[in-house]
Amino acid sequence: MKLSTRLATAAAMLAAGALAFTGCSGPSGADGAGSIDTSGELSGTIKFQSWSLKNEKFTPYFEDLIAAFEKEHPKVTVDWLDQPGDGYQDKVLSQANSNSLPDVVNLPPDIAYPLVAAGKLVDLAAADDSLEKVYVPGAWASYSYPGIEGVYGLPWYLGTDLNWWNGAALTQYGVDTAALPTTNEKLIALAEQVGEASGGQMPLLSSMPTIDLFASSDVEIIDNDGRFVFNTDRAAAIVGDFAAAYQAGAIPAEALTGDYGGNADMFKQGKVAYTTAGSGFAGDLQRDAPTIRESVIASPRIGAAPLFVQGVSVSNDSKNKPAALAFATYLTNTENQVAFAQLALGFMPGTVDGSADAASLSESVTDPLQKEAMEIVSESMKTARILTPFQWTGAMKTYMDQQLALALKGELDPKEALDKIVGYANDNLVEY
């Protein structure tokens, strides 16, 4: 599975039914949580599991990293396992159910949650209270869960989005590209302006409102009791603005249907003048749309920047927690994270020092647009946060898209659409 695909989907791949653990009675956190001393001599064998990273590009990196760790701790052996991209969550849950979860395992926050609820992961905040200050705050916080004390993952590599604008298309329709929108309200107003000026031939937007958009606009998505509450007047106004933009030709009709292929693809095809994507999009444009790329402008994401997180957790069933925690912290230290991010361009280290050092991350990059994008992402990491709660499922998104499509076409009142969406979501919450 490509890294970009994984980070984009990890925030919303919670599924129902098969994910429940046998004997799980609800959120409890790790049993026996407490300090883990890694300062003494370490020994024994531990298993480390990554997610679709054993390949020509990354295998040498992991082999060297493991060899260096074993040299530092000569009585420790690290067995590296790698699972395919497809079916990873089911595999992890099967391992946990059979008490065979590897000592150190690659988990995004949403896949980690059912394991945390079943007491299968170590509380890393309790294991070592010095760790919190090492990692990007929003990423560290993403491994804490409502009603459960503790933090259950070390942020490893991170992603976020930024804005990409088709400068030539915008200039053609009278837009001052030196004064691009910095709020969602101004973005929608510009979308209507360009839609009208182009006669609907150059839409600016290519998607309906999303949970991320509501959250980045300071709409409360879910309350402390775990209930969805985003059916507010503020969210209804956003939907109403999108409906007006759609009527003005600012959103293509295919964005409202199942045939929608994605705003980034439409941008590369020259069908829309704006999209959001990670910093690696600069390379995608060079490969797929070099003519459009010539005038492309990158800028920080409007509102709160979304945070996509991959991390590593320590199994609470591990028989060798000191060695496991030592390896997890070694894998995710700044030096090793920066080296990883230099291979995986477009992603940022999960440590504060690593994500702030855009120069080190891009030292081998010669493309000015790629460098600029990486600098924007580095700055965004200071405040980026998870916008889509782990309780939000694919089925909920599908239902939301159906209702919002009706609202944008004027067939359903925006507030009524949101009431239906929130009702459906709360009726279909996944519990463990």
How would you portray this structure in words?
The chain has 432 residues and is α+β, with helices and mostly antiparallel strands. It has two domains: 202 residues, Periplasmic binding protein-like II (D-Maltodextrin-Binding Protein, domain 2); 183 residues, Periplasmic binding protein-like II (D-Maltodextrin-Binding Protein, domain 2), CATH 3.40.190.10. Helices cover 42% and strands 11% of the residues. Strand 1, helix 2 and strand 2 form a beta-alpha-beta unit. The protein is globular and about 70 Å long.
Secondary structure class reads alpha+beta
CATH topology of the largest domain: D-Maltodextrin-Binding Protein, domain 2
> Superfamily at the CATH H level of the largest domain?
Periplasmic binding protein-like II
The CATH top-level class label of the largest domain = Alpha Beta
Mean pLDDT: 89
Strand tally, please? 9
Number of helices: 20
Please report the distance between the alpha carbons of the first and last residues.
Answer: 27 Å
CATH architecture verdict of the largest domain? 3-Layer(aba) Sandwich
Name the beta content range: 5-15%
H/E series: HEHEHEHHHEEHHHHHEHHEEHHEHHHHH
In helices, the fraction of residues equals 40-55%
Low-confidence stretches: 4-28
| Bulk shape | globular
Major beta sheet, specifics?
A: 6 strands, mixed
Radius of gyration of CA atoms, rounded to a whole number: 22 Å
Strand order of the largest sheet: 2-1-3-8-4-9
Number of domains: 2
Protein name: ABC transporter substrate-binding protein
InterPro entries: Bact_solute-bd_prot1, SBP
Keywords: Signal
Signal peptide: 1-20
